[in-house]
Amino acid sequence: MRNLLEIDNLKTSFFTREGEVQAVRGVTFSVQRGEVVGIVGESGCGKSVTCKSVISLLGSHGKVVGGHIRFQGEDLARKTAEQMRHLRGSEIAMIFQDPMTALNPVLTIGAADERDPYSPPAFKQEGGERKGYRDAWTGRHQPAGETL
């Protein structure tokens, strides 16, 4: 089975007036379809930067400087900004740490998605079904779409 996401020796830096800050150095992991992966670590260790590197949301000072990021077999480094905008939200997304926009365990996935101001309109119209959740309107948040 081919991996859905492959991160190989990822290196991400931020460039400031004082010079380069190496935020991520040599991260490697893969995710298969249907698999749930948690990235854990101390505050400031690069968890969010790793995820933002994958979806190209590093801002103007951040840059992936090494390694490979492959999603569904395609090298994301070769994608244009427009291609990445299309991919984000339609194929790949990130749940941010902000408690106001993170998943609420008392809401169904569909209800949470409707409330999300960053969710693309197509998701709001189709509910969570497009995301692969079996029953987005009745099931609580569970990995791989399992309902309570």
Automatic annotation (TrEMBL):
SUPFAM superfamilies xrefs: P-loop containing nucleoside triphosphate hydrolases (SSF52540)
Membrane topology (UniProt): Peripheral membrane protein
Catalysed reactions, as listed in the record: a dipeptide(out) + ATP + H2O = a dipeptide(in) + ADP + phosphate + H(+)
Skewed-composition ranges (Basic and acidic residues): 126-138
One Pfam family linked to the record: ABC_tran
One Gene Ontology cellular component annotation held by this UniProt entry: plasma membrane
Keywords, ordered alphabetically: ATP-binding, Cell membrane, Hydrolase, Membrane, Nucleotide-binding, Transport
Segments forming domain AAA+ ATPase: 33-132
Name the UniProt record assigns to this protein: ABC-type dipeptide transporter
GO molecular function, one term: ATP hydrolysis activity
Enzyme class: translocase
Keyword check for Lyase: no
Family: Belongs to the ABC transporter superfamily.
Ranges for region Disordered: 112-148
EC id: 7.4.2.9
Organism: Cedecea neteri
InterPro entries: AAA+_ATPase, ABC_Ni/Peptide_Import, ABC_transporter-like_ATP-bd, P-loop_NTPase
Subcellular location: Cell inner membrane
Main location: membrane
